[in-house]
Amino acid sequence: MKMKRRYRAAVLLGLLAAVSTTTCSFGAGQVKQEDTMTGPGVSMTEEEMPGVPVKDGQIIPENLEAAREADQMIVVVGTGGCNADVFYYQKNEQENWGLAWQEAGIVGRNGITADKAEGDGKTPSGTYSFTLAFGLLENPGAILPYHLIREGDRWVDDPASAYYNQLVNTAQTPADWNSAENLPACSPYYNYALALNYNEECVPGKGSAIFLHCYTASPDNGSAGCIRLPQERMEQILRTVTENTRIVIAPNLESLK
């Protein structure tokens, strides 16, 4: 009988030790098996995964980062060379995103880049807002402030100038630049245009005068860095974009964010 009692006591002590060890294994530095693990190299559940912006070759606009703050989005996706597809998305009354239209567009003659530099002939990738509507033609009903181009208007692209990447007029501004876009001479490209807030800090050499504007006719060999659309589309865009509209530019679908 004594041997049996000792055996039962040993078994009970062993069970208690096992329970104690299991409980302590969830202390500091340990993770319970049922806890969700989201560290590097660990898969998240489907519900926890952020929405992907592209699925089966189709853009899902609500999953773009810009959709969090935008009321409308112009999405520019490079398709090779200076060619691009341009998608215009708007929210409906139920706050759902929908495609308003799609158009073939033109970008920089050397494509789209994440590392834009002055004179490289490339369009900068990223997400931007619009700061100014302007044009050689009368205001078509733009929501953003509209500047009617007049004689003497220049957009400075000389990195050595104090007015780099700024709109100036030679009647009021003493020229300290060796290079600037002569806006009155840019017909029909600047019949209607929108200025992006790219390099609004005016960092010398980072790129200047990045616009969304008109093109003439196909074939088009590409821009110095701007995005071009048919004039009818530009007129339509000027009537709808607001300060909360965003333009998203990517070299391909896979790089959309």
UniProtKB/TrEMBL annotation:
Residues 32-53 are annotated as: Disordered. It comes from the Bacteria. Keywords: Cell shape, Cell wall biogenesis/degradation, Peptidoglycan synthesis, Signal, Transferase. The active site is at H213 (proton donor/acceptor), C226 (nucleophile). InterPro entries: LD_TPept_cat_dom, Transpep_catalytic_dom. The keyword NAD does not apply. GO terms for biological process: cell wall organization; peptidoglycan biosynthetic process; regulation of cell shape. One of its GO terms (molecular function) is transferase activity. Pfam families: YkuD. PROSITE patterns: LD_TPASE. Residues 87-250 form the L,D-TPase catalytic domain. Pathway: Cell wall biogenesis; peptidoglycan biosynthesis. Residues 1-27 form the signal peptide. This is L,D-transpeptidase family protein. It comes from Candidatus Enterocloster excrementigallinarum.
